[in-house]
Amino acid sequence: MSSAYYPLSLSEKHLLQAALMEENGATAAWQRWRDQVDIEQIETSSYHVLSALYVNLAHHQISDPHMSRLKGIYRRTWYANQLRMKPLRNLLAALRSADVEVLLRRDLALVASCYSDAGARLIERFDLQVSLDDVRLAFEVLKQQGWQTDALPPQKGDRLWQPIRFRDPDYFSLFLHNSLFWSSPQFYTDRLLWENAIACQLSNIPVRSLSPVDQLLALSVIVNHDYTKQRRSPDPYPIVVLADAAVMVNVIVDSATATDDWIRLLSQAQRYEMILPLRYLLVELQQLFELDIPDWVLPNLRRMAISYHELLTYALLPKERALRAKAALVKMRQRWKDISR
Questions:
Q1: Rounded to whole angstroms, what are the CA distances from 70 to 12, 66, 67, 185, 243?
Q2: What pLDDT digit, counting tens, does each position of 274-300 carry?
């Protein structure tokens, strides 16, 4: 089975399948992966999937001598996440006292709303979303709580085109955001993000996070940008993001509002000009995991017109010859306009 999107190795595919598929598929993939690698010599990109692998194998009651090793990795992940909850709990309480509403993003949102086990996914960073009106106050609260940054304080109402990075005394990173998607009218786009947010629990802390639909759409862009970097770098691809995406899709599939969620995902991909990264990601996930994506989703994505913005912004697959030719023409026109000014 060739990869639709990423140059994954055979062992990486088998690891992802063992960590995410149901019993028969997971068992077969686990046996293939186990026979291909030395579990004591796993590269970092694969190591981060091992906790989810343990959770899935244990759920399906798969017995193997390597399970004790995987359980140890799972316990370390769980413990590391619990250690990070104390400063997060204090910070969220301080923000709540200051009447600053917060949405969880990325790792925090995944663990809170998508992964069924707090030890299945390592929290490598904190990402918090606040409103434009609260960004200055959130900045001040973070500083008061001991989080340090070299950035200048934003003013109330400032839009952060890039997140502000903070570090705690242990150099753990937190990113403060107040924007995610871009589409006019922007106030409506911002409002939708908050209206679609979901209430959940993170280590018994009541929180709100991005909806799985918004998480998946945002992750599709991150994955596309990572694909571009990977083609230029010898470093292994962080395959954990594909596990994250598959978990998000399964949450949407199992939702009581699944049909509405899929419709919203497609309409937002079109409105925010994210059709290509979403389409590429869903095709990859379907090939890797045989997910229960409705049969009308991918055909609809393929029929959607691709804007000039997408052609200029996102990485195109080598096989997309027509789109690549069109993108080259658009770039040529753009250069000509710049020269003519």
A1: 16, 6, 5, 48, 17
A2: 999 999 999 999 999 999 999 999 999
Beta bridge partners of 148: 167
Residue 207, Cβ density class (10 Å: 0-12 exposed, 13-18 middle, ≥19 buried): buried
3-state secondary structure 128-147: EECCCCCHHHHHHHHHHCCC
Q: Which amino acid is at 128?
A: L
If you average pLDDT over residues 9-34, what whole number do you get?
A: 94
- Interval 37-54 mean pLDDT: 89
Give the pair of three-digit tokens for residue 284.
């990859």
Q: 60-109, pLDDT tens digit by residue?
A: 999 899 999 999 999 999 999 999 998 999 999 999 999 999 999 999 99
**CB contact set of 325 (below 8 Å; sequence gap of 6+):** none
pTM passes above 0.70: yes
**Strand ranges of the sheet holding 164-167, from the earlier edge strand across to the other edge:** 164-167, 173-177, 126-129, 103-104, 205-209, 198-202
Identity (one letter) of the amino acid at 19?
A: A
From the list 155, 162, 186, the residue with the least C-alpha distance to 176 is: 162
Instruction: Count the Cβ atoms, other than its own, within 10 Å of residue 149.
Output: 15
- Strand-pair category, 198-202 with 164-167: unpaired
**Distance between start and end Cα atoms, the chain:** 49
Where does the pLDDT of residue 228 fall: very low under 50, low under 70, confident under 90, or very high at 90 and above? low
Report helix, strand or coil for 313.
Answer: helix
Q: Look up tokens 């340090």; give the residue.
A: 148
**Which of 79, 69, 176 is CA-nearest to residue 123?**
79
Element (H, E) at 166: strand 164-167
* Domains of the chain and any CATH numbers: 85-210 (3.30.460.40)
